[in-house]
Design brief:
Blueprint (H helix, E strand, L loop, with lengths): L1 H17 L1 H18 L28 H9 L9 E5 L5 H8 L5 E5 L2 H11 L4 E4 L11 E7 L4 H17 L4 E6 L4 H6 L3 E5 L3 E6 L2 H6 L1
Parallel strand pairs: 1-2, 1-4, 2-3, 4-5
Antiparallel strand pairs: 5-7, 6-7
Bound molecules: S-adenosylmethionine (SAM).
Amino acid sequence: MADLGTTRRRLAEARRQRGLWATAALGVEEAFGRLRHGSASGGTAAGAARAADATNDAERLETTSFRTLRRTLAAVPADVRGTGFVDLGCGRGRVLRAAVDRGYAPVVGVERDAAVAADARSVVGGRAEVVEADAATFPLPDHAGVIFLSNPFGPSTLAAVMAALEASQRRGPRPLVVVYVNPVHRALVEAAGFRPVWQDADAVVLRRDSVQNWNAF
Ligand SMILES: C[S@@+](CC[C@H](N)C(=O)[O-])C[C@H]1O[C@@H](n2cnc3c(N)ncnc32)[C@H](O)[C@@H]1O
């Protein structure tokens, strides 16, 4: 039911912002996406997800629309497609499943809410790893080329994630891409040397080729 609530709210927002045709297109894409994925990958958890974590700045569960998912993943630069993919704050696994379908490997989701992480595990069915952990302290794997963030947390956790990304990129030099949906704290990601390669009203895709280049500025 929560999933239907999210869809209704999104459709109402889209109708206000983009008009009737864009709303109809969003609704059709959401319906087809659910047919492919099943509805279990979506949903919201009103307020409940604000349990204690290291920095206590978690956002509530809200699932990325299939439209935004399609557009952002299509905007990932070709040279990092198919690399390791990590969704920090993976919710019920919709993004993980989309990443697996697009050939990313390995695909890892990190989710601090145990019940939500269990839902994600059943959605991905063993094709991605779902770790129940706090993103602020999660040791980022050095295979990761794409980090997906759908406004999962506030600036304290994001700052910890940026530090972990820097350490990981120093250990394993490689281009890193951050896909940031509803990028409320985008300035923090840019301050860490990531530069936008694509953006629309809902999301931004940013890239940093190396820590050395960034530090040289
Ligand atoms: C906005 S939802 C996004 C879900 C999914 N990534 C998507 O795009 O559909 C954010 C999720 O991040 C989780 N979360 C928030 N803070 C977290 C943290 N510090 N560590 C791990 N997960 C966190 C929440 O429990 C919630 O499920």
